[in-house]
Design goal:
about 110 residues, alpha/beta, five-stranded mixed beta sheet, 5 strands, about 35% helix
Length: about 110
């Protein structure tokens, strides 16, 4: 129910991404509400539940996911997809991968 979620563009980022991608702040944070986490170290079901609640209670405009290329971080896409499904939200989702060398590319839809 936080007011900053109302009508927001949401950024979900793996907590390593800001360190691996040099222009992370300029390219992703500006104009978005940022949620950071680590699917490897944190409770994935809790992520899904919290995100589904955010989506259900707010008119989220869009979601951007930024994750590292490692398998554990790529789970962010699955977590978001499940939360969107549970919330029955109609929200566009765009996903980006940061490679270990700092390169960024947009994931295929």
């Amino acid at each position: 129910g936080a007011p900053f979620f109302k009508g927001a563009s949401l950024l979900l980022a793996g907590d390593c991404t800001a360190f691996a991608f040099a222009s992370f702040h300029l390219d992703f944070i500006r104009g978005r509400v940022t949620v950071i986490g680590c699917p490897k170290l944190d409770d994935q079901e809790e992520y899904i539940s919290k995100l589904a609640s955010i989506l259900s209670a707010n008119d989220i405009r869009d979601i951007s996911i930024v994750h590292m290329e490692v398998p554990c971080c790529s789970q962010m896409k699955r977590l978001v997809a499940e939360a969107v499904k549970r919330a029955k939200a109609d929200v566009p989702v765009t996903s980006y991968t940061v490679k270990r060398n700092g390169e960024l590319f947009e994931d295929a839809s």
